[in-house]
Specification:
The structure holds 2 protein chains of 2 kinds. In chain A, 17% of the residues lie in helices and 45% in strands. By secondary structure, chain A is of the alpha/beta class. Chain A has 2 domains: 1-36; 39-175, no CATH class. In chain A, strands 1, 2, 3, 4, 5, 6, 7, 8, 9, 10, 11 and 12 form a 12-stranded mixed sheet that branches. Chain B is α/β, with parallel strands linked by helices. Helix content of chain B is 19%, strand content 27%. Chain B has helices at residues 31-37, 53-56, 69-76, 99-109, 161-167; strands spanning 2-4, 21-25, 42-46, 87-90, 118-124, 134-140, 143-148, 171-178, 183-190. In chain B, helix 3 packs across helix 4. Chain B has a 6-stranded mixed sheet with strand order 3-2-4-5-9-8, covered by helices on one side. Chain B has one domain: Rossmann fold (3-Layer(aba) Sandwich). Classes of the chains: A alpha/beta, B alpha/beta. Chains A and B meet through strand 10 and strand 11 of A and helix 1 and strand 3 of B. Strand 11 of chain A pairs antiparallel with strand 3 of chain B.
Amino acid sequence: MFEKQRNTKSSDSKSSDSSPRETAPSAAVAEAPHSARGNALIGASIRINGDVSGDENLIIEGLVEGSIDLASNEVTIGKSGRVNADVTAKMIRIDGEVKGNISGHEKVVISKTGKVQGNIIAPRVTLEDGAKFRGSIDMDPSERGLSGTTSANIGSANAALNSHSEVSSAASTSASVGN
Amino acid sequence: MELHCSLLSSLLADVDEERRLTVFDAGPALPETVEFFSQFKCRLYFADLYDEDVLSQQDGDASDSDMNLSDRFTTLFDYPAHTKFDVCLFWDVLSYMNEPALRAFSQALNPFLSSNTDIHGFSTLKASTKLPNQLFAIEQLDRLRVRPREGRQAPCYPHPQVELNKLLYGIGVRKATLLSNGLLEMLLKVTDSPAPVTR
């Protein structure tokens, strides 16, 4: 269901310095923790109705309805990505469309192709030229660099916002992203 | 393009950095505005009224619609009940609202205003003033970034200061200055006694 998009330009010194696979295949596998080697990808033809959670970075090019909770990781909603869900992550980049509330523990970026309807809570929010946004943005510069301590604040603030949001999500099934 | 606004700086002059600032922007979310307010602990509400149907339909017959203008604005301003705006930015919607729309807009916004609310906006004084089709974003305390607005320009409704004071429910013009581009830059304040509602 999910593909792995390997980052061939990874700065991971272990992987780049490894011997060729032909000579040490077992070492290469052993040194490849799933969360350090690439991003999970929800492809453009994939539709998920449910809760997405896990412990690795995620790129969404398909459709997700429900919720996305990757509090320690990065989430990218690609140009073809459509998300009708609340999204929680460390860093969130939106090149596609999101209807839902967004909690970024460090930063949220809406790119020039991004379109968001909902409420954003993050220490830092960046809109690029051409980004479309409707809703509210809650920022607190004092929380920058304190991502580990902001989760509880974001959670409680988001709960307050959720009660007033025009956007609601109803997840009927659960799916987890990972290996 | 930049637009220097002499009255703008007083808007945020006394902001307590420790206090959360609640800001209403009647226009769209633009990069400069978000970047500017990122230095504050704040919550920004973007209404993007220009692109809402409520403005394009303001000249229509209310009886043709399920909702009148007041209901439409009230629906748009569906903010949490406890919300009180510290700062309101009316860029540049006042010039695109006719009289009934201005009344309905200000009435719907009134529950979210307090005596501490500071408002900055523009108006067009005369029909002969060619209103540029532009968007405004705050870049510095006394400077706005002006961008061309894409698409066809909506009909413009000039409102002299005296007229605005009559039309805006619970809001009055405190200071105003005429800019070189013909726009009237205004600081507005919540008044103790709202203007009587006339329909």
